Amino acid sequence: MLVLGLNAYTHESSACLLDNGKPVALVEEERTNREKHTWHFPKGAISEILNISKVEPCEIEGIAFFWCPWREITGNIAHVTKYFPKSINLLRGGSGSDELSFFRRMILMGRIKRKVLSIIPGIDPSIKVSFIGHHLAHAASSFLVSPFEKSAILIIDGRGESKTTFMGVGEGNRIVKLYDCPVPHSLGHLYSAITVFLGFRPFSDEFKVMGLSAYGDNRFCDSFKDIVQCLPDGKFGLDLRYFSFHTHGRNKWLSARFYKQFGLPRHSGENIEQRHCDIAYALQERVEDVALHVAKFLQKKTKMDNLVIGGGVGLNCLMNKRTVEESGFKKYFFQPIANDAGTSLGSGLYYTHVLHGFSRQHVLKDIYWGPYYQDNEIEKVLKAYEISYKISHNIAFDCAKYVAEGKTIGWFQGRMECGPRALGNRSIIADPRVGKSRDIINTQIKKREWFRPFAASVLFEYAHEYFDSGIDSPFMMLVAKVKHENRAKIPAVIHKDGTTRIQTVKKEINPLFWGLIYEFNKLTGVPVVLNTSFNENEPIVMTPEHAVECFLRTRLDVLAIGNFLILKEELIETMIDYS
């Protein structure tokens, strides 16, 4: 059974095609329209997945959508009534994205079938759309492709319809809810509120705050214990006196009480002060504490050994590390597309396995589900840009040599990975042994904040020698402490707190990327490379055109695209300015 899963009209729109529950292709709309975290209907993404799969539209048997709009309508009526009259301001607030009002979003969601029929010629006009609850879509995306027959399920995000946190149990094809936390008590919205206070964008830059937290101290930690409180039975609650988002939406996140206690907010572009770092630290610690409180209760309640985690807050690697170390569960599965982009996968999985009873047969081991480009397609692009290139007969070895020489490489290979983190197919690669690599990439290539950390991609066989993580981390969902005896070897990937976001790379999963690191290890004795997403203040590059343009306008030294190598130093005579 071929099923089209969709997410649209909030943020991180995406489309996923599944065949009897096995993902065939998943593409995020931002990769096609180049608008980060876009809310727009995934027209481009659908076109890509149909092209990847070679499926005819008439073969699609069902459509699964990641949201139940009528549940949000009834929940919002209750919410507005509860917080009336201040809640009237919600009618003027943005909904899911800056551009969409609540009413407009509900209308668009209600017309989802009409939209699908208008952009996919040939699809059966009698096809039905199943509206899957948001947190059920997250839960399905996490549990139904996990290696577990039975597992506890924890979903933490901003909100879905009128809930914010989901605790449940999965067994076989069944997902059973134990408890879901009502809005406005949301760890995701708490994190977004402080993200705005610190001068960054909500639903976009929360990971920046996580990185900034390493530079803070604990002077505000006691205050944050009042702001978000742990309650019995794994529950938690925000002290709403500090917030305004529940009555004003994203137009006004925090109240005068918060500003009185913590000072005026930072505006984008202003200097980052120690106060800002300390607030980020307190936020991060409190989110970890509360998530751990929930996870411990879930383990006590279910008495299970296995835990799967999803939802946007599930991308918080520091939180995940503490969950592994302290929650009491023994085995874990972290959904790597834990943000809303993964709900197109989850809605399709729920439709297939829960609603239609197809047996689970696919365990998620990689997420290279995006488009792939043949060398002849890439060569046409290079010729169109009039770029001179070399053909490599061993791209892994050649690039390992360049990295060992201190060059930064734009690495464009194979099928594009899904999710927010580059996993070795659309990556920028650099030498982790040179501390200045971090500053060069931040300032001259990525053109972003100085405090932003980088991931360490390590050969799976050597991970235990360099890092303290006791479990596999193929999707960069965990941070690990770098062992003291190896810290001098890889300074460029070590954050202020001595940790790094780790990706363990296995030969059987990604042989080409594994081969690059393997060759680098042979040359240097270090089985680790610095890995960050191939982009510059934009979505990760998807097409050869995206890769070439990013390469030309930044200070990348080498572009390794398919079996072609382009060296910046050889273009200097003909290219005037890359900035």
Q: Your description of this structure?
A:
The termini are far apart. Among the domains are: 147 residues, 2-Layer Sandwich (Nucleotidyltransferase, domain 5), CATH 3.30.420.40; 196 residues, Alpha-Beta Complex (DHBP synthase), CATH 3.90.870. By secondary structure, the protein is an alpha/beta fold. The chain is built from 20 helices and 21 strands.
Secondary-structure arrangement, i.e. CATH architecture of the domain at 375-570: Alpha-Beta Complex
Classify the beta-strand content into a percent band: 15-25%
Radius of gyration: 23 Å
Distance between the termini: 49 Å
For the structure shown, list the relevant keywords.
579 residues; alpha/beta; Nucleotidyltransferase, domain 5; DHBP synthase; five-stranded mixed sheet; 20 helices; globular
Task: Briefly characterize the structure.
This protein is 35% helix and 19% strand. The protein is of the alpha/beta class and 579 residues long. Helix 6 packs across helix 14 (343-355), helix 9 (221-227) crosses helix 12 (274-302) and helix 16 packs across helix 19.
Give the topology.
Elements: E1 2-7, E2 14-19, E3 22-28, H1 29-33, H2 43-53, E4 62-65, H3 69-82, H4 102-110, H5 112-119, E5 129-131, H6 134-143, E6 150-160, E7 163-171, E8 174-182, H7 187-197, H8 206-212, H9 221-227, E9 228-230, E10 236-238, H10 245-248, H11 256-262, H12 274-302, E11 306-310, H13 317-326, E12 331-334, H14 343-355, H15 375-384, E13 390-391, H16 395-404, E14 409-412, E15 426-430, H17 436-445, E16 455-459, H18 463-466, E17 478-481, E18 499-505, H19 511-524, E19 528-533, H20 544-553, E20 558-561, E21 564-567
Parallel strand pairs: 1-4, 4-5, 6-11, 11-12, 14-20, 16-18
Antiparallel strand pairs: 1-2, 2-3, 6-7, 7-8, 9-10, 13-21, 14-15, 15-19, 16-19, 17-18, 20-21
Helix pairs in contact: 6-14, 7-12, 9-12, 12-13, 16-19
